[in-house]
Design a protein that fits this description.
Shape: globular
GO biological process, one term: carbohydrate metabolic process
Number of helices: 15
Helix content: 25-40%
InterPro entries: 6-hairpin_glycosidase_sf
Strand order of the largest sheet: 12-13-16-20-19
Number of strands: 25
Radius of gyration: 23 Å
Distance between the termini: 23 Å
Strand content: 15-25%
Largest sheet: 5 strands, mixed
Length: 575
Amino acid sequence: MSERRLIPDTLMLEERAAHAINAMIGMADRDHNFIPFFAADLMHKPAFMTHGDWDYGSSHGRMIDGLILARHMSGEEFGKEVEERYRANLLSFFKEDGMSYRQINPTHDWEPNANLIDQRAVILSLTSWFMESGDLKVKEVADRHVAALKRIAIKERDVWYYPASEYKETGWPSRNAIQLRLAPDPAAFCGRLVMPLLKYHELTGNQDAFELCQFFTALIIERSGVFNQDGSFNDSLAYRSGHFHTRIGTLDAIARFGAWTGDAAMLAWVKKSYDWALTKCTTFGWTPGDLHEQAYEHETCSLVDLIATGITLAQSGYVEYWGTVERFLRNHLAESQLLDLDWVEETDDKSCDIHANKSFYKVAERTRGSFAGYSAPNDFVCDVIEGRGHMNDLQICCLGSGTRGLFMGWSHTITEKKGTISVNFLLNRGSKWLDVSSYLPHEGKVVLDIHTDISRLQIRIPEWAGFTKIKYVRERNGEVIEGKGSEASSWVNKHFLLLGSAVAGEKITVTFPLSLRKTLENAVGQTFETEWRGDDVVNITPKGKKKPLYSGRQVFEEAPMRTGDYRRLDKEFVW
């Protein structure tokens, strides 16, 4: 941070990341070896948290990854001792075969197994851990883990797969499943693994990781049947009723692999399914849980998958998705983070706690900064008469994913490629090249403070702003230069205003009219009227009843200001 100054009091993702750290640390069960609780019921009086079968590789992997990314964004050091316990726990879950195993729980009749969904979070966290630290011991664990994932895969001529959801030390539970090629939900167990495996290959050159990506991707596209020919999700029971988190997470993974390998056909395949998925979501980011039983239950995990996939597609030339993703970041991701807990009843009494199972202790305080486990379009709490009714209000997987969503938005607000600096999201953000100060949604105004000479600078302008009334003022070396968006040769890639070269110390102010509009949004047969101010939803009808969303957003004719500054790093993670 540099010297503090006046900045717009608008959405700052790095500050949201600091709030998420509070929850990631607070949900540790200090009475049970710092195993994090998985879920919370905030409607109960008093609220309580519960453990579950996801407590081990999945939850620990999500928390380690989330904490690494959140600390990188925010610089916050709070709770490092708890994070170290998470890391030690994660390493303790590995057996000699290189797989991460769920543990015996004292209150549930579970048997140890290496759940294949868990392995995705495990290699994700090891990858971020190695990226952060360069620790060769972590790399050794990750190499053994990747080798195990390759070793246990059933290998056909052109595809690999896992024949069950759970692997045991004695091997696969059923030889018959292998002989009959009964691959259960390939998206959940194989497709989503591609994302962290590819990043691990990028970092280390690990060839086992690349081979897994190659053969799992071929499985999904060529043989699995997870996605229909028109891009829609296969909604049969065997495919988890078209479960959105695992489907879109798979699209994220394959988009990354297509971009990495330069496979334009693969990217076009992803785009087709992504566009279909968007038709089932609201434009502000609410997603169904699936296409049947969980349709009404939005997971923050699914939204973050949409964000990540959209970013990869945008970087690959489908630039229209920058605006799509910004709407997701500003709206349902930001609204899904729990910052106001006045409506939650909590207690500091532990007398009703059940060891290793349930806790009522200071739940509101400990979960502040978490993300919605299941939410309605207009309410943090999903308590509808359809589907499964009221379920978990918080899930730790959504906390890890929500934090990763903040990071994806933050790290792609300003990007550099071959000497061109692009401002992709109109969000507050600092960098070694320039600072972005966003006055949205109050004013159609963005200020760029340049820190170093830039040979080519461009900024994305929202599609609703048009081009005829866009203006910019450049102040440098005592000179003031004015320009308009209607000038010839001002635009590149349809949505970017080309500002050309910029010099250190220059200030560029870009202004444009705000779009004030209403849209009707459909969410699994329910209609919501939304009021927009630019890319922000400022009201929604009908209003939520438990913990309403989009009903408390204040807007002013001039953006409120506050004292502060942005975080700037010489070297940043790239995910």
